[in-house]
TrEMBL record:
Pfam families: DDE_Tnp_1_7 (PF13843). InterPro entries: PGBD. Residues 1-43 are annotated as: Disordered. Residues 8-21, 30-43 have a biased composition (Acidic residues). Residues 135-490 form the PiggyBac transposable element-derived protein domain. This is PiggyBac transposable element-derived protein domain-containing protein.
């Protein structure tokens, strides 16, 4: 057998197949009687295969071994050790089954010192000094900085130019009147999008309707054509530099930049939580997920790392099976555990506690985090092989501790609940619930508190959500980060720095008013609006006023015609209407 035939027999780690068995997508993983551990093993067969590089040196070494040719395929199985002269293609100890010894809980708990390197924890002190009297817009700009807005402006203008140069649009399309946008207009555009979440109407064009039922002031802020042009062209990366191996290239660096700013403003305390969220999307997409216990069920899955109360500091968009060198952070054999290691990597080795649910947790993950001076607390699937099998009555507990000092505890309340922890013992805590004293394991009480941050984050982002069904997937994900996650993070900073309480709806309302305030946006735009001589036509300002007062027929007959036109707006204005429209003070 030549080396190339051996290579074909090996499963490659670099597999572009999207059909990985995700427990959130394949609901049978939860409903049938099969062992979840067996499912995870099948799911990661590709990830467990070794990598053998066929360079000239290795090929010569194999071909020179004349005594290998008589070995049969069964004798060369991966379970048997390779001959001494052949480079090993079998994964190392990270993938081998470990024989653990279990004993009754002896309350021998690991003790890790928190913040041993005396790094800055919690709120950035610079914010307290500079933004004690800050507005919601000030805190929002701490998360969505002017640099992020500037990148969006550059990519939006570039994408619009690409659309126009392609000559694939209709001659009468509104995009033919496109002019470059700027930072102030993009902020105004974001403000209008937040407005659409606060005041929900069936479709965008109704915000410009003259009907008293849909009466809004959108028309005084931005024209409908301009709004829809921006909605069509808003972009976050350069299509000409697209990476064909990266499904998320259209998101650019927006999410990474937001997370960097969020980390600068606040560092995690002792507890962190990792779980998944879902951005609703009903269109056709290769990595669209189905999560039955989520409100929206179908959409794009995001893995988030949150801290108290609902502040997001790390996020990863799930785009299906992908090529990644996770060996650098510790490959523990399943997707969920590797996600935990990737998101939490900057915060390890400092005595923190990570709370996860049963899709991420495993004994292997707890042991790996122990080696990084980090606790793991979470639920565990009830039918894991190593779980205690004893049947319990309500309120009873059975627990065991592994030789690596990881506790697995089974407690029955209304149903069996299995917990895993490297921080707790099996002690009970007294609680008063509905006037009655009940006993719960301390690990359950702490888990219920630790997991609230991401649940509260999802709850806060769902209030007045501006995302619409008609948006493309990458715009939905980016706008979710810009207008939902960033707004919630800004609200947390606002409350902590100013020590004032404000609801998420009131915060969005104030932020929207500050973003669309024309006084903050005319400084740049007014310099570009110039009246030029043109053919005679009705004044757009006078015509609009006449329509509102006496109707369209009256306006058509009585509006004066003038020969001055704003080149940038492509509208005719008399002098008074021009100065009023662009907020320019006449001298």
């Amino acid at each position: 057998m030549n080396p190339y035939e051996i290579n074909e027999m090996l499963d490659s780690d670099f597999d572009d197949d999207d059909s990985d068995k995700d427990p959130d997508y394949n609901t049978s993983a939860f409903e049938d009687d099969s062992d979840p551990e067996q499912i995870e093993t099948e799911e990661n067969d590709d990830a467990l295969s070794g990598i053998f590089y066929f360079n000239d040196e290795n090929i010569n070494r194999i071909e020179s071994l004349s005594d290998v040719s008589h070995i049969s395929g069964s004798e060369m199985s991966v379970d048997s050790p390779p001959p001494a002269n052949i480079p090993s293609i079998i994964p190392h100890q990270a993938h081998q089954q470990i024989d653990r010894q279990w004993r009754d809980d002896d309350q021998n708990i690991n003790n890790y010192t928190f913040n041993t390197n005396n790094s800055n924890i919690g709120l950035n002190l610079d914010l307290i000094d500079t933004l004690q009297d800050g507005t919601p817009l000030d805190f929002y700009q701490c998360i969505v900085s002017n640099d992020i807005i500037h990148k969006i402006v550059i990519e939006t203008n570039r994408y619009a130019a690409q659309l126009l140069s392609a000559r694939t649009i209709s001659p009468h399309a509104r995009l033919n009147k496109w002019h470059d946008t700027n930072e102030c207009e993009i902020k105004q555009f974001f403000g209008l999008l937040i407005w659409t979440g606060l005041v929900s109407l069936p479709s965008y064009h109704l915000y410009w309707s003259l009907s008293r039922i849909y009466s809004t002031q959108f028309g005084t802020i931005m024209s409908r054509n301009r709004f829809e042009c921006l909605m069509k062209t808003i972009h976050f990366s350069d299509n000409t530099c697209a990476d064909p191996t990266n499904r998320l290239y259209k998101l650019g660096t927006v999410i990474d930049d937001i997370m960097i700013n969020s980390n600068y403003c606040m560092q995690p305390d002792q507890s962190m939580c990792i779980d998944e969220s879902l951005v609703k999307f009903m269109g056709r997409l290769a990595f669209k997920q189905y999560i039955k216990n989520k409100r929206d069920r179908f959409g794009i899955k995001e893995f988030k790392l949150c801290i108290s109360p609902c502040y997001t500091i790390a996020m990863k968009v799930y785009c299906g099976k992908e090529v990644s060198n996770i060996l650098n952070v510790g490959n523990v054999g399943n997707v969920g555990s590797n996600i935990v290691m990737e998101l939490a990597e900057p915060y390890l080795d400092n005595g923190r506690t990570i709370f996860v649910d049963n899709w991420y947790s495993s004994v292997e993950l707890a042991e790996l985090l122990q080696s990084r001076n980090t606790y793991l607390v979470g639920t565990l699937r009830c039918n894991r092989k190593s779980n205690p099998k004893k049947k319990l009555k309500r309120g009873e507990i059975v627990s065991q501790r592994s030789s690596s000092n990881v506790l697995v505890l089974k407690w029955r309340d209304k149903r069996d609940l299995v917990m895993i922890s490297s921080k707790h013992d099996s002690a009970l805590t007294k609680l008063k619930i509905r006037g009655k004293t009940v006993h719960k394991p301390t690990v359950v009480v702490d888990y219920n508190v630790g997991k609230t941050s991401i649940d509260l984050s999802d709850q806060m982002t769902s209030y007045s959500n501006p995302l619409r069904r008609s948006q493309k997937w990458y715009r939905k994900v980016a706008l979710d980060a810009l207008l939902n996650i960033s707004v919630v993070n800004a609200l947390v900073l606002f409350q902590k720095v100013t020590s004032s309480k404000m609801s998420i709806t009131a915060f969005r309302t104030t932020l929207e008013e500050q973003l669309i305030n024309k006084e903050t946006i005319t400084e740049i735009t007014s310099q570009k609006h110039v009246l030029e001589k043109s053919n005679r036509s009705r004044c757009a300002g006078c015509y609009s006023k006449a329509v509102k007062k006496k109707g369209r027929k009256y306006a058509q007959c009585n509006t004066k015609k003038i020969n001055t036109k704003c080149f940038l707006c492509d509208k005719h204005f008399c002098l008074d209407c021009f100065f009023e429209e662009h907020k320019i003070v006449k001298k």
